[in-house]
User: Which sequence fits this backbone?
């Protein structure tokens, strides 16, 4: 026990839980927390908007494999971060959002205090796993331990801690609560035996791998090789199995080839995936009684499909036990090769306008590379299925909620989480305008970050949808923007590519630069006509 301010109690608790980076912006009500950060070993990363701070913490968490932290001030600041919190919820990313709240004893109906909103706690609670308003300085470390326990046990989700603003400067005797180390949860032994027996006799097994398998890449590969099973990957599962592996069919389970492969299988092992409409796009595949599901979340176990066998447990531990119960089959990989060829044909047809860009980017992607993509056509039609990645968490993508502006700040967070990686942002001209100021944040950090902006002159997907509906094209054209000039004004390098063949060299130069480099390239698609 020792006397600390609330701000010191918060930061000391974060240090005790291994936090090394906090993303955020100081404000009038959180200055005590930033003062404590300045005296701590934690790196403070100043973003230019709270939404950017949330996305950066998300990107950090996906690559680091541990919770990211976003610290804002009250009212509009934490509300600005809610889009990022919603994206973290959708994609099961552990991000701790921390903000002050109205002071203790504040009138229940309000009195117009600076940054007061009607019910901040309820607003955040509606988006994250839970929002916890502490009642004393002494409770702050306990709240942090609760949050980390929740984020690292079971399905990871974002959490919010609200600290009454008067408690951040108040002093009290505080006990820093040690982290609670989670134990891997193992599945029921009878269910495991049932799954192993079904897979052992399956003639045409298939694996479908989601974001919940990112921490089990070795075990996924082992099981796939034991079964000689083709592996499909969702957007968030992309790279769990190196896409150069002979059993990797590819990413993008919405393609007809993926559906055909799943329908022809006699056993489907789904690992860490919701089997969500945001992955399948055109409706779910009926897998009937051939579905075996591995998931840490009991509720997710029956979401979108009720499996014949439920393996409820930690992905790594469950797959290791499953591998130990499986006999090895003779390797052939011909099924995977045929399925990969068919999926690539589907992907090439869908992504034709962006194939030259993907071909130029592919040589720059190695086992260290992370591509932080945005919700833009070049990413979901182009990169998702046509740009191979070679590592878990090698493709960061805002699935589900599908926010715009995610890629740039997520790339910054990823680059700071793993300094020996090569991180690239893949943006559209519309999406980057949501978080363009984070170029200045990335420049301040001095990261070598290629930011590829694929420009079709507006909100291309929406333009096409309006056209398909036979409606006037309204409010979708953005007009010409000097993106390289904007980048240079924010302390970055900025270049324009006139020939796509120049893109490979430009990206490699950007990876070796002393600061971020925005690389502007025009796309030639229906949307840009």
Assistant:
């Amino acid at each position: 026990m020792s006397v600390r301010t609330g701000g010191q109690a918060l930061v000391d608790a974060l240090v005790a839980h291994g936090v090394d980076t906090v993303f955020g912006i100081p404000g009038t009500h959180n200055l005590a927390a930033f003062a404590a950060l300045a005296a701590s070993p934690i790196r403070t990363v100043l973003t230019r908007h709270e939404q950017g701070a949330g996305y950066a913490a998300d990107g950090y968490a996906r690559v680091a494999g541990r919770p990211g932290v976003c610290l804002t001030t009250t009212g509009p600041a934490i509300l600005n971060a809610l889009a990022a919190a919603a994206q973290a919820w959708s994609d099961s990313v552990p991000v701790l959002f921390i903000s002050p709240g109205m002071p203790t004893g504040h009138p229940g109906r309000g009195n117009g205090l600076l940054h007061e909103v009607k019910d901040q706690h309820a607003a955040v609670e509606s988006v994250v796993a839970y929002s916890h308003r502490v009642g004393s300085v002494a409770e702050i470390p306990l709240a942090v331990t609760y949050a980390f326990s929740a984020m690292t046990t079971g399905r990871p989700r974002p959490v919010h801690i609200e600290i009454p603003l008067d408690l951040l400067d108040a002093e009290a005797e505080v006990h820093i609560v040690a982290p609670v180390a989670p134990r891997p949860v193992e599945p029921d032994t009878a269910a495991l035996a049932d799954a192993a027996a079904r897979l052992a006799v399956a003639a045409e097994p298939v694996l479908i791998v989601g974001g919940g398998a990112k921490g089990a890449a070795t075990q996924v590969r082992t099981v796939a090789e034991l079964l000689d099973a083709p592996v499909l990957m969702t957007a968030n599962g992309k790279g769990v199995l190196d896409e150069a592996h002979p059993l990797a069919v590819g990413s993008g389970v919405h393609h007809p080839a993926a559906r055909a492969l799943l329908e022809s299988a006699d056993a489907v092992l789904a690992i860490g995936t919701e089997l969500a409409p945001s992955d399948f796009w055109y409706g779910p595949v009926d897998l009937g009684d051939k579905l075996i599901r591995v998931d840490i979340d009991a509720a997710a176990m029956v979401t979108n499909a009720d499996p014949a066998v439920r393996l409820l447990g930690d992905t790594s531990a469950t797959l290791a036990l499953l591998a130990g119960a499986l006999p090895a089959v003779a390797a052939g990989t011909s099924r995977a090769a045929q399925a990969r060829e068919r999926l690539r044909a589907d992907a090439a047809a869908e992504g034709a306008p962006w194939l030259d860009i993907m071909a130029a980017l592919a040589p720059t992607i190695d086992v260290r590379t992370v591509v932080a993509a945005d919700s833009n056509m070049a990413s979901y039609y182009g990169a998702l299925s046509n740009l191979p990645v070679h590592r878990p968490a090698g493709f960061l993508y805002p699935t589900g909620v599908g926010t715009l502006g995610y890629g740039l700040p997520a790339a910054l967070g990823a680059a700071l989480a793993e300094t020996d990686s090569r991180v690239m942002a893949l943006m559209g001209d519309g999406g980057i305008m949501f978080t363009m100021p984070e170029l200045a944040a990335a420049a301040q950090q001095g990261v070598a970050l290629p930011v590829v902006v694929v420009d079709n002159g507006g909100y291309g997907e929406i333009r096409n949808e309006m056209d398909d509906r036979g409606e006037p094209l309204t409010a979708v054209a953005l007009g010409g923007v000097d993106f390289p000039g904007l980048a240079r004004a924010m302390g970055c390098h900025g270049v324009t590519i006139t020939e796509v063949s120049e893109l490979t060299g430009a990206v490699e130069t950007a990876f070796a630069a002393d600061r971020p480099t925005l690389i502007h390239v025009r796309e030639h698609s229906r949307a840009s006509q």
Observations:
- The mean pLDDT is 96.
- The two ends are 67 Å apart (CA to CA).
